[in-house]
Amino acid sequence: MAQTFEKKGVTKKSENFSDWYVDVITKSGMADYSPVKGCIVYRPLSYAIWERVQDFMNPRMKAMGVQNSYFPLFIPESFLKKEASHIQGFSPELAVVTIAGGEELEEKLVVRPTSETIMYTMYSKWIQSHRDLPLKLNQWNNVVRWEKRTFPFIRGSEFLWQEAHTAHATHEECWQQVLDATELYKQTYEELMALPVIVGMKSQSEKFAGAVNTVTLESLMPDGKALQSCTSHDLGQNFSKAFEVSFQNKEGQNEFVHQTSFGYSTRSIGGLVMVHGDDQGLVLPPRIAPTQVVIIPIGTDSEVLRTAENINLALQEKMIRTKLDIHTEYSLGFKRNEYELQGVPVRIELGQKELESGNVSVAIRHSSQKEQTPIESLGAYMPNLLNNIHNDMYDKALKIQHNLTSVANSYDEFKQIMETKRGFIHAHWCENADCEAKIKEETKATTRCLPFDSVEEKGTCIRCGKDSKHKWLFAQAY
Amino acid sequence: MAQTFEKKGVTKKSENFSDWYVDVITKSGMADYSPVKGCIVYRPLSYAIWERVQDFMNPRMKAMGVQNSYFPLFIPESFLKKEASHIQGFSPELAVVTIAGGEELEEKLVVRPTSETIMYTMYSKWIQSHRDLPLKLNQWNNVVRWEKRTFPFIRGSEFLWQEAHTAHATHEECWQQVLDATELYKQTYEELMALPVIVGMKSQSEKFAGAVNTVTLESLMPDGKALQSCTSHDLGQNFSKAFEVSFQNKEGQNEFVHQTSFGYSTRSIGGLVMVHGDDQGLVLPPRIAPTQVVIIPIGTDSEVLRTAENINLALQEKMIRTKLDIHTEYSLGFKRNEYELQGVPVRIELGQKELESGNVSVAIRHSSQKEQTPIESLGAYMPNLLNNIHNDMYDKALKIQHNLTSVANSYDEFKQIMETKRGFIHAHWCENADCEAKIKEETKATTRCLPFDSVEEKGTCIRCGKDSKHKWLFAQAY
Lengths: 478, 478
Prior knowledge:
Two copies of one chain form a homodimer. Chain A folds into three domains: 17-276, Bira Bifunctional Protein, Domain 2 (BirA Bifunctional Protein, domain 2, 2-Layer Sandwich), CATH 3.30.930; 293-384, Anticodon-binding domain (Rossmann fold), CATH 3.40.50; 405-476, C-terminal domain of ProRS (Translation Initiation Factor IF3, 2-Layer Sandwich). Chain A has 14 helices and 25 strands. Chain A has helices at residues 17-27, 44-63, 77-80, 84-90, 116-126, 171-192, 238-242, 267-276, 302-317, 332-341, 352-357, 378-403, 411-419, 433-443, and strands at residues 31-33, 40-42, 67-68, 74-76, 95-100, 103-111, 135-144, 158-168, 198-201, 213-220, 226-236, 246-248, 254-256, 258-265, 293-297, 322-324, 346-350, 359-364, 369-374, 405-407, 424-428, 445-451, 459-460, 467-468, 471-476. Chain A has an eleven-stranded mixed sheet with strand order 3-7-8-14-11-10-9-22-25-21-20, sandwiched between helices. A five-stranded mixed sheet of chain A has the order 16-15-17-18-19, with helices on both faces. In chain A, a hairpin with a 5-residue loop joins strand 10 (213-220) and strand 11. In chain A, helix 2 (44-63) crosses helix 6 (171-192). The longest helix of chain A has 26 residues, at 378-403.
């Protein structure tokens, strides 16, 4: 079996958060730095997590009527320029092909940073009548955004994501699609990744380049910085006008379609590691863990091996993803360390002693606790245990978020929080972009969103004192 | 539901094969031309076929110990140059990024045409000991080869594929991996796509750029041209020496690893269409068809609708992929045409008349036949029917191949076959590259492979008359 086992030597999470993070992802075999600036290698562990995300989202997207497809990697430069704010937003980070097949290209080709412009060129051809609507296509692909400062999974020059693009006859339907996508993303974070999120609207300056409005899911990392975890855009008719995507309605009149786009990327894997990981390495929530339970027989006694195989089968019958580790080249201590580092939720060891007692000790990764369990009842016990672990991990993550969430009633208070623990801050803001820019300049905090559950109330902007209707969510962002 | 229904107007297959092919793939909604030269859009129908390929191959590759992963899209130009024949083979068709993040790059980045060089750079870091072997990684990704002449699916400037790359301690193990990969590919073609293939070794001039030997699967298209359908390469130590991928063996000595790479691409979809399609459009073998059975209720009678729903459920219980089409905006005739064009293997229509008789007529796409079947027994009947359809389609394809396969005992005979029906030709060849080149120049036929089942026999090269040990397989290639 090909496994690059490395020594632990993981920096403590409390000592240096970003060193800890890089240690965990590289030493666990999640990822490695590649020779290409800002691009990582997704090793089998992280790619298997990504496949779990695909398995979770694909049937749910299909139920929304979204179909998978694939569009070209390259976009003619002129296409990107058709929607003014779109090109403005993406132009600093484009990678550009100028030579192909040994010749200088007449028109440069941009490596897609996102696919609105190439997809909508085709939509304009395919959509003619109201009967062609809604059109809902998704792609699982790679995109390139040449970033100056990169950080594995969180911000990369190339990353993997899904990008769905829908076209609708009415703005009402379009907005409903944005909400449906947001709900799917919330489920993916909460039910698959055991990560709590705050859902809300982006400010006008923080929205997607080309959108009318952007709905965002924001997560809080244990170092007090926020992660914009995925977004769904109401594109209105901005792109349909630029790309002439129109249809004949039931009354025979021509109208521009209303569009959405929404994306969920491998950045989510970064959040997963940051929130759940500990000083021993990765801690994976059971539903996303490629291996949920590892079974390690101690020694080579044939009765022990047979029992381990039986446990393995009993768990697989319950649809649990198991690994039976019968390698003899590595010591028990080495294996324990390795599976802790890789974040396997549950570890079962069994030897002669366990055979005699009829009980095994089940080691639970996230709590470092052990539970004595009769071998016979493991099959019945494990699905519940895995569910409980998921719930415990979600609760723990929610507690981290709560502990790092504050309300600031004055700018002094706001600044003090930002200088100490950071985290999410609820504070009144006048919704003026200048004020927003100055808050960022002075405190590093940006508006993350106007949470959907924010209640309207009279208040004054923490910075300028002008009237404000809502407390917005602020944080320093990754 | 978003469906771009288009008029049929498909060219006859017998009249103009390539026009027919393009008509079928564009009008069925498989693919569309994009504004980027040589790049197509994989619309939902072809992408769903590709997902079926992934679903078929993934568990089988996993059983071989191959793990999925993802490596960067970009390869520094210098990496590609490390293996001399590799860069020579790929250099004419590279797409090159020269500008990124608004700046001219110091070292140009090539968009991967294949990933040997970037992957083996990492392998060199990861592999140290015999305990790290074998290392078997696969990627499902996009690659770019800037082709002068493109043809949808068959030859594109960008295409999708899987590329697996393995490293082994011995050449014996490495060669076994090549054979195992070949067997998997053969299964995929025969058992999933209902396409017969010929398996054999490439000649030295036709092998992969950088390989010691290449094993190929060759399919024959109904126009008498051969399609190189996928390949598995024995890379020997060519790349491991160039990229310094070495390991300490059990005796403590340093050795270079032995490597393989093998790939299966969306080109296979082109072969699928060409062999099985007919004048009515696509014909999909049941195991790869995204929709296996479409059920069309006639009219809006509630009893008819309820029966259609029951049939749908009964088939889904048998794990059959169904579609229940209750749209009222399109006529029955329109729907029939559409599903024929899209190649759905089985169509069931039912109305008042069928309800009364208790029988439905089951329309079978590939044979254009109809079978009267009791509604009650559809669930039991359908899995067998689908299996029979698969077998019939395979047999039909094999017959096409047999009818287009000849033996040439002289060069005159060889040339005459190439001028008339083309197809596969078994003929003696001296294994000299000059002779091979001249045969190509004079007849357009290239050596496709030395079939694994070719028996050693005394003969003389059809062109130069020198001694020959085997009949090789020749054909004009796509």
